[in-house]
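I'd like us to work through together how a protein chain folds, taking it slowly. To get us started, please write out a protein record for me. Label the sequence line and the structure token line clearly, so we can match residues to local backbone shapes. Once you have written the record down, we can walk along the chain together.
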Amino acid sequence: MRPISVHVDDEDYRHLKALADRSGRPVAELIRDAMAEYLAHREGGGSLLEIEPHSSGALLRPWNREELFDEMLDP
């Protein structure tokens, strides 16, 4: 592996650190996994719709595709 330096926003790092602590994995491992996933989808020309969502807790109610797009595109 080749070491690299990445500058991140303090708030983003706090979120990454909390996620790493909850999952019992180092922050560097989370970043490597995210980079690998990005490259796999980028090189494959995949769609954002093909990326598995990350769990952020229990759903309050199910969303359909139209509601999700409306939420994402609402100014």
Observations:
- The chain has a mean pLDDT of 84.
